[in-house]
Backbone:
């Protein structure tokens, strides 16, 4: 199971890029999962739903299945990406696109909005690609690919090649 992280600051394009990576890999026949770090508090559970009622009653895990879809909500104040990925391993995916979790160890695509974000490339490990206009200001390393935008043919070709390894 391959894992690619998409990291960057808020409003850098992480969700747009993650969606593109998922679509491209799915179109190639890969079984793809995604995981997003919600860095702004507890994700919303719709009030009044059965899952909400079950959680309010004390369930730390609640799920609802319908039409072949299973939605799980699990309360654990000590989640790590490793714990979460254990659930994904049960599904036998080919690829997981992880949005966020900057400090984790998996291969990363780093999104740079401005020169203020350039420090991310020094602060993070296992970077495979950097995307953004200010990349020309970086000292380029041979093991990292650099792109001005992920809306370009070069990026798409690189990603397809990367998945094919």
Residues:
């Amino acid at each position: 199971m391959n894992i690619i992280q998409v990291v960057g600051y808020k409003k850098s394009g992480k969700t747009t890029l993650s969606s593109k990576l998922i679509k491209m890999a799915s179109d190639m026949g890969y079984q793809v999962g995604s995981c997003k770090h919600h860095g702004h508090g507890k994700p919303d559970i719709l009030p009044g739903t059965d899952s909400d009622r079950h959680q309010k009653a004390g369930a730390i895990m609640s799920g609802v299945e319908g039409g072949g879809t299973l939605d799980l909500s699990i309360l654990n104040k000590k989640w790590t990406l490793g714990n979460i990925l254990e659930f994904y391993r049960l599904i036998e995916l080919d690829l997981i696109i992880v949005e966020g979790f900057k400090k984790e160890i998996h291969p990363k695509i780093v999104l740079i909005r401005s020169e203020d974000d350039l420090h991310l490339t020094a602060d993070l490990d296992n970077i495979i690609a950097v995307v953004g206009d200010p990349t020309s200001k970086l000292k380029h390393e041979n093991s990292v690919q650099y792109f001005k935008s992920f809306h370009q043919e070069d990026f798409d070709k690189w990603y397809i090649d990367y998945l094919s390894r």
Remarks:
- The chain has one domain: 2-40+80-164.
- DSSP finds five helices and eight strands in the chain.
- The first strand starts at residue 2 and ends at 7.
